[in-house]
Amino acid sequence: MATAEPSCDICLKLHVTKSASVWCSESKEATCEDCKQRHRIQKATKNHETIPIEDYQELPLYITNIKLECEDHNQKLDFYCSFHSEPCCTRCVSEKHKDCREIKPLPEVADGVKSSAALSDLQDRVSDMSQVIGQLIQEKIDNKSNLQSTTIIDEVEHVRKAVNKHLDTIQDEMLTNHGDNDRQQIDNIDCLVDKLSEMKTNVDEIANALEKTKQHASNFQTFLGINKWIREIENHEMELRSAQNDQSMANVDIQIRINPLLSKIERDVSEFGKLEIYNSPPKKLVLRKEKQGQQLLIPSSPSIRRIQLSTIRSFDIPKGSQNV
């Protein structure tokens, strides 16, 4: 988030320190109450949009670091190239983008972005993915709880009472193996839960950043922020699909098969039983909004009314000619 307790930038130039009350994203300045009034009536800044400094401090760091000037030419970014998906200044248009046909004024592109289908779709995808990850985490926690039940131990002890003397050694071996397998599977589940929790934290951060941006950021800042978060959420979607297809995501169940020859244990049985790990497929949770991201920019073909005609060649038709 933005830096805490900023001071008025205009007053600082006069070597005076005052707490700022509003932020102007176009001027990139924080102003106090006195300077705010002058900012509103000056010709160069009267049309600038400002937000309370408290709202500015809630914005994601990526949003507050967005620059309105071209880093290459130090000129204002007035245009947006749909082909390269980047803002550009006048010099960029004439130099780097001179062959690009999808150049539009940046205000025209960013106008209405907060109510756009792209922003709404991204929020839905973030919410959807957060919900799916939460359900996967709960499934793993339930699986872990089932692994920690005493069913196997109770069954072992029930058989153990019938053949107490001979089973002392092999019971200890069986319980030790059970404990090792149990801990190994629990460690695996904990590792998966940690990975999914980290993924969910990242997704929730995007969701929070989106909400703050939608509430407080300028259209320009929101527009560029969406491009970044769309790429990030697509990466998380790929990670989630990959994790769900991984064998390690299978639900684990440890069962025991009791040796049917226990009645002849002293003579025939040399081991208590075999621990077997069964992997059942996890629930397949589908991302409802998967890969359905709306395009921020949809290039439109020029209307026929906007087509301008130019003279290529002219000629005269002789009077009286009938076969033309």
TrEMBL record:
Gene3D superfamilies: Classic Zinc Finger. Residues 196-246 form a coiled coil. Keywords: Coiled coil, Metal-binding, Zinc, Zinc-finger. The keyword Methyltransferase does not apply. InterPro entries: TRIM45/56/19-like, Znf_B-box. Residues 6-53 form the B box-type domain. The keyword Ligase does not apply. GO terms for molecular function: zinc ion binding. PROSITE patterns: ZF_BBOX. It comes from the Eukaryota. PANTHER family: BONUS, ISOFORM C-RELATED, MEIOTIC P26, ISOFORM F. This is B box-type domain-containing protein. It comes from Mytilus coruscus (Sea mussel).
